[in-house]
Amino acid sequence: MDLKPLFEPRTMAVFGVSSSNHRHPANEIFTKNLLRYPVKVYGVNPRGGTVNGQSIHRSISEIPETIDLAVIAVRADFVPDVLSECIRAKARSATIISGGFAEAGRRDLQDRIVAIAREASFPFVGPNCLGIYVPSHVDTFFLPGERMVKPTVGNVSFVSQSGGILVDHLIKFAGEGVGLAKAVSIGNKALLSELDLLDYLAQDPATRVIAFYIEGFGPNEGRAFVQNAAKCGKPVIVLKSGKSAGGSRAVSSHTASLAGDYASFSAALSQYGIVEAANELEMISFCESLSAYAKPIKGRVGIVTVSGGHGAMAIDACTAHGIAVPALPEDVREALRKNLSPSVREIASLANPIDLTGSGIDDDFVATAETLFAMEEIDCVLALLLPYIPGITADLGAKLSSVATRCGKPLIAYVPHVEKYAMLIEGFELNGAPVSPSIEGAVLMVEALRRNRP
Amino acid sequence: MIKSNPDILRIIEEARGNGWVLEAAAKKIFSLAEFAVPRFALARTAEEARRFAAEIGYPVVAKVVSPRILHKSDVGGVAVGIGNDGRLAEVFEHFRGLDGFQGVLVEEMLSGVELILGAKIDVQFGPMILLGMGGTGVEIYKDVALRMAPLTEKDARAMIEGLKAHRLLEGYRGAAPVDRGRLTETIRAFSSLVMELEDRIESIDINPLLCSADRCVVADARIILRG
To answer: Which chain A residues are Cβ-neighbours of B124 within 8 angstroms?
Structure first.
């Protein structure tokens, strides 16, 4: 099945638009695509009428061109007929937004639409989902445009069983500067599941990182998923919920009890180098970090800061994650000391973490980063920045990022996320270095690079 | 291995009515698949038990045989370190009172580090192999490594090294180290066996797998069949 029409439709038909009820989800989808996306959109409803000044077609067969993507938001009972109509009209794919299938006890209805689609090799996403959002291309979410918070265009694609979790992550992506390639809410995943989307996104040139929110796989699907993910050559991140489900089930063997559903899930993921995010903070940190750096590291960091406390917190977080913080050899320290500004030279602590103290200035950070990047024992630099220190300027983000780019090793920064420091943060992010709003988050970004094995 | 060994499949089919393979039959399966098992005999009478003990020499281990008892230790159905005929007769008499008693398994007493080697057919991921510190406290310590089968040699080694207590296998405080090569081989062979029995089983516990400087022995095993 070709999934491309789902993500790159040129023509789109929205089923269920209403000429009287403007709050109907189908109307929202129709309107936003009509006004804001470069896709040719047609409304369909057997009752006809007009919406947004456009006439509503009574059937897909009345539309003068072939439809790439049918968005179906009609009552569940009508979906099988609409789907058959789409197939007859040679439409190329569909997103079924409607609920009222397996999740509402109507497994039979769901099985029917799957059978119809399978027979015709017709791909559809859903039912019971938000569908697809590709920035500047297509948006089948029935959420009013002004309510959505949209991340910038980037290289992370996100596939989610839950629409709400997906939209929330888009908000967080926007807040943390994580760029989005494609977002898919797969709902009941009756036909297309995580595995199909993994295979598609693995081939998608716009996607460099593939993130999933998964509640559970179908029978034996997890096995194929981890094997394909390991082969796909892109970092794959998974956030799982329902970890305790089934934990209380009586089991007859020790192995069955110790290797419960979640234990097996987690073990299989890590065996195949898939990065499991324990929670949302990890998910966002991992996405941001892996979208910037796809190359795995061993996890040996050099830490530079102007505060002993920040250094100590970072060390604790690194230790907890099994990340090494190698000491600087004496000769390296002496060479670095000579390159520091006179007021810092005498008081800086040049162990690792390197504490430039409150007298530190931009040039001291640059000199230290160059020293750390040059060390073979170090494969990543963590810069913990306190922008309220007088010697630090808003240019430091761009300056340090360019050192990292030149040296070819990852740089990760911590900067408190408030409007006032936005220029410093952008200086990092626009130049390819991820920035976390917490020390723990910054260390998680290192952890993601260490765990990643594409 | 199994494909050329119809005996294994026959033992499994015979146990199907019961839902699981009793210890003696399970050990027979492992022995047919070329795993090391202790010398053992199934005694229906105290006299048979005594005769076999005399043959292999004391001390021996005795375990109750009952299709109604899945976890023998939980009901006092395991006695270790039996040193003489009198004690063996006492144990036999006690076991006779347990639910569904069919006989007593008498076997040689071996020593070594107690590991658990297990398998489970997971709905989402298929056959999974578990290695952990074994014995009766296995679900308390939960010191286990878990991987999707089939396992490579590298997987097997990583599982051993992934155990928190793996230093106990390296000759901790003067003890002789466990034969790492043999343990790796046992894990690999187990993974192959599980791949072949995938459609027939639900889970397997080898607990304990007794590992010492020169052997890895399946000291107890339970195979739960797919319903």
So the answer is: 216-223, 261, 264-265
Residues of B with CB under 8 A from a CB of A: 20, 70, 116, 118-120, 122-126, 128, 130, 132, 138-139, 142, 144-148, 155, 202-205, 207, 222, 224
Residues 6+ apart with CB under 8 A from A316: none
User: Which of B136, B146, B190, B191 best probes binding to A when mutated, by most A CB atoms within 10 angstroms?
Assistant: B146
Minimum-distance CB partner of A255 among B20, B118, B125: B118
ipTM score for this prediction: 0.90
Element (H, E) at A154: strand A153-160
3-state helix, strand, coil in chain A (%, to 5): 40, 15, 40
Q: What topology does CATH give the domain B40-108?
A: Dna Ligase; domain 1 (3.30.1490)
pLDDT in tens for each of the 227 residues of chain B? 555 588 999 999 999 998 999 898 999 999 999 999 999 999 999 999 999 999 999 999 999 999 898 888 888 999 999 999 999 999 999 999 999 999 999 999 998 999 999 999 999 999 999 999 998 888 899 999 999 999 999 999 999 999 999 999 998 888 889 999 999 999 999 999 999 999 999 999 999 999 999 999 999 999 999 98
- Its CATH architecture, for the domain B6-36+111-225, is 2-Layer Sandwich (3.30)
- Taking each helix axis from N to C end, the angle separating A330-339 and A362-374, rounded to the nearest 10 degrees, works out to 150
Nearest chain A residue to B156 by CA distance is A271
d(CA A194, CA A238): 11
